[in-house]
Amino acid sequence: MPLPLLLVVDDDGDAVAHVEAQLLQRYGTEYRVESLGDPAQALRQLSDLAKRGEEVALVLVGLGVSDAATGGELLEQVRQLHPEAKRALLVAPDAWADTPTAQAILDAMAVGRIDYYVARPAPSRDEVFHEAIASFLLEWATDRQVMPHTVHIVGEEWSGEGL
Questions:
Q1: Which of 10, 23, 37, 57 sees the fewest Cβ atoms within 10 Å?
Q2: 116-119 and 56-62 beta bridge pairing
């Protein structure tokens, strides 16, 4: 079975190439990483993957793409085609400083179009970006029960009930 997919969809070619490189460097041994500039093409690929029963772990969509009719449809279709996949908007690092952008993020979250948002990674190593991606993937793996669960037992130190 192929590795689970991390898909990046953005019409900004330089940004999508940088995000793809960052993801490949960190996650390329455990996940397939692909990027596309066209949301319609991404939708076709996601449909094909669903028909073949292949896993999609995370779909990152650029904010500009998500505003377009096809981009919005892409985000909605991801939930139907791959219900366990995490969906996040890729935004500029200063997205919250721009009122229309901040409102677009909040609106997308409010209607359930996205699960998260994440700032595009900085040109150099961006640990904040990778912390967000790792959190998304941990949640995806936990939801699918493919990793061991941790159990915390609360009790007084060295008591019989707490051992």
A1: 37
A2: unpaired
Which residue type, as a one-letter code, is found at position 106? L
CA 141 – CA 148 distance, rounded (Å): 10
Q: Which two tokens stand for residue 162?
A: 């707490």
The DSSP 8-state label assigned to residue 124 in this structure reads S
Residue 113 amino acid letter? R
Distance CA 86, CA 83 (A): 8
Neighbours of 75 (CB within 10 A): 24
- Crossing angle of helices 13-27 and 127-144, in 10° steps, is 60
Q: Identify the CA nearest to 27 among candidates 138, 106, 120, 108.
A: 138
The whole-angstrom separation of Cα 141 and Cα 147 is 6
State yes or no: pLDDT of 62 exceeds 60.
yes
Where do the domains of the chain lie?
Answer: 5-144
Give the architecture-level CATH label for domain 5-144: 3-Layer(aba) Sandwich (3.40)
